[in-house]
Design goal:
four-stranded antiparallel sheet, about 55% helix, disordered C terminus, alpha+beta
């Protein structure tokens, strides 16, 4: 199997994936752009070391990013060379295991998405499973037991050099502040290998839930189980917690794991609400606030960049959010948000004009009477107020669209209508950017 992983075709595919993903440099400082030259000079030696079982991965660079709900998430950034090898490993492991994964597992799998997970939950609600057990694994990627994971891998993989390489990647140290510390557990997020390894481990949970005849949805370490009664839900919560802790050696956050109703539960950034006897998805408040925070940062008035750059960043940031949450019917929210964005854009332009003489000159270009241009240019009103009043009739919505602003509500309309027609209009392409709309 190791020879298959190191084959030219698989390595070429892995290289293309790593280059397209870009990403930050590891502890050696090598960028993705430098990878090709490095491989031309050193790949034969690296390949030989892997085959002989002497290759030792470099430590990963520790990076901490804030979580939306507080706390920090630890990422491990491997070197680009190790990312290439891990990507090659992940491709073959995914092909080997994916066919046997559960139909209720949707995370980090080809042809599967968060939307499908939400649709499966709606099916369960419609069939009467209105009690939801939300399992919360505490720092899952940081707490995976290496011995347990390796024992699961050994059930299907007999290639000893490959197993040795996988264990070395699991045990690769973490560098923080120039000091490398050893790692005895966990598969830090940030590497191409951690998603497929997490699915291989948690597939044991999936098989156990299927053996018990339970309905569930799992996306990576987010798992929700659906039953009909409160009593059953409490019993399942206790028994599944015992299984995760005793059999898979994982830590369950007992404070956050709970039993809830459809209108109280969360799934991948979506909530649910009752409508005409059924349940429909809705967008949680937290993703809405994160989107507004991102828009505030992009349209900040003192950034010192052109309005065209602002609009380009804005369209890129908002399209991913709309693509992800379009199934939740959020057009009303987006229409209100469009009005708020237009005010911020007009304020941004007004701030750029800065001087009265510049404002008079620019306003005259809108084909308005000179006295109006003079009055507006010399106003003592603040930027937000003038943007909400006089500028809204001068810099019309069509004017902002002409600059390049695509209203979120219009993009939402096109994405939802064209999804039914299986096509997207020119100039409105854009895929889902990530989980929870990040």
């Amino acid at each position: 199997m190791l020879e298959d992983i190191l084959s030219a075709s698989n390595m070429r595919e892995a290289y293309q994936q790593v280059v397209s993903n870009k990403g930050a440099a590891g502890i050696d400082g090598m960028s993705v752009e430098e990878l090709h030259a490095h491989l031309c000079a050193n790949w034969s030696v690296i390949k030989s070391q892997i085959q002989q079982g002497t290759y030792v991965p470099l430590a990963v660079r520790k990076v901490e990013i804030p979580k939306p709900n507080g706390g920090k998430r630890m990422l491990g950034i491997p070197t680009v060379t190790d990312r290439l090898i891990q990507q090659a490993l992940a491709q073959k492991l995914s092909a080997m295991y994916d066919a046997d994964f559960s139909e209720n597992s949707f995370g980090f799998r080809p042809g599967r998405s968060a939307h499908q997970a939400v649709e499966r939950a709606l099916e369960y609600f419609a069939s009467g499973s209105r009690k939801v057990i939300e399992m919360d694994l505490e720092k899952f990627f940081d707490c995976v037991n290496h011995d347990k994971l390796m024992s699961i891998l050994c059930e299907r993989i007999t290639d000893k050099p490959l197993l040795k390489l996988l264990r070395r990647y699991l045990q690769a140290g973490i560098m923080e502040g120039g000091v490398v510390s050893t790692r005895s557990e966990g598969t830090p997020q940030g590497s191409p290998l951690s998603p497929v390894l997490s699915n291989i481990l948690l597939d044991k949970l999936d098989k156990e839930l299927e053996r018990r005849g339970l309905r569930f949805v799992r996306y990576a370490d987010d798992c929700s189980i659906y039953v009909r009664s409160q009593r059953s839900a409490e019993r399942v919560l206790q028994s599944v917690t015992r299984y995760l802790e005793d059999k898979l050696l994982l830590k369950v956050n007992r404070d956050k794991s709970k039993v809830s109703r459809p209108d109280q539960c969360h799934l991948l950034g979506f909530g649910f609400r009752y409508k005409k006897g059924g349940c429909v998805p809705r967008v949680l408040e937290r993703p809405k606030e994160r989107l507004k925070e991102k828009i505030r940062a992009i349209t900040k008035r003192n950034r010192g960049i052109s309005i065209q750059q602002v609009l380009e960043e804005l369209n890129m940031a908002t399209r991913g959010w709309v693509n992800y949450f379009r199934i939740a019917g959020c057009k009303t929210f987006l229409e209100k948000l469009d009005g708020w964005i237009r005010v911020r854009l007009r304020t941004f332009i007004w701030k750029q004009w800065q001087f009265i003489r510049t404002r008079i000159k620019k306003l005259k270009q809108f084909d308005i009477p000179e006295w109006v241009a003079l009055t507006v240019a010399k106003t003592r009103k603040g930027p937000v107020r003038i943007a909400s009043t006089a500028l809204s009739t001068i810099m019309t919505n069509d004017y902002l669209k002409g600059l390049g602003f695509i209203p979120l509500s219009e993009y939402y309309y096109f994405r939802t209508s064209c999804l039914m027609n299986r096509r997207v209009p020119n100039g409105m392409h854009g895929g889902v950017r990530g989980r929870n709309g990040k």
